[in-house]
Write a structure and sequence with these properties.
Order of helices and strands: HHHEHHHEEH
Number of strands: 3
Number of helices: 7
Structural class: mainly alpha
CATH class: Mainly Alpha
Number of domains: 1
CATH architecture: Up-down Bundle
CATH topology: Four Helix Bundle (Hemerythrin (Met), subunit A)
Largest sheet: 3 strands, mixed
Distance between the termini: 33 Å
CATH superfamily: dinb family like domain
Shape: globular
């Protein structure tokens, strides 16, 4: 079964992320993907963690911390919309976040621990939402978005970056 969302629930920019998640129920996917991501990052070669495949491109450490930061932001947006439908939330500049993240000073273990903690909090948060909550709409970065779309964006965004890491860093 495909779990297609109406395009009125998210900005066109997020379609690629959401399309990666349509074959599974939201909660099942977030939980299964947690193990997939942890397995991927735990086996990522140590010598590649600080490698950038081109000038000005993020290292795997920076990508991983970007995933953590973005998940926190998307989860916060979902919480805010679930509690205050119709709210207008600002965007965020991922480049500035990565630049100021201190990712290069972090260890693989600390990043993996933080990712797991954030993902477990995300799963708990989304488990708390009712079907009505998941359908609520707000505005983020100037476009309409639903709580359930944000959950799928979290999962699809993680898969997107893992695909890039496989393609360009390994």
């Amino acid at each position: 079964m495909r779990y297609v969302l109406p395009e009125s629930e998210f900005a066109p920019f997020y379609k690629g992320y959401i399309d990666k998640t349509l074959d599974w129920k939201l909660m099942e996917g977030l939980i299964q993907q947690t193990n997939f991501a942890m397995d991927f990052f735990s086996t990522f070669p140590e010598e590649r963690w600080e490698f950038g495949y081109a000038p000005e491109k993020w290292t795997p450490k920076e990508v991983f911390l970007h995933l953590i930061d973005a998940e926190r932001i998307f989860s916060t947006r979902a919480l805010w919309i679930a509690r205050e439908p119709g709210v207008e939330l600002s965007g965020f500049d991922e480049g500035i976040f990565v630049k100021n993240s201190n990712a290069m000073q972090r260890t693989k273990t600390s990043l993996m621990t933080e990712f797991l903690n954030v993902r477990n909090a995300t799963v708990s948060l989304f488990e708390s939402y009712s079907d009505v909550d998941l359908m609520k709409l707000g505005t983020a970065n100037g476009t309409s978005i639903s709580v359930r779309a944000l959950g799928r964006i979290i999962a699809g965004h993680t898969l997107h970056h893992i695909d890039i890491l496989k393609e360009r860093y390994l």
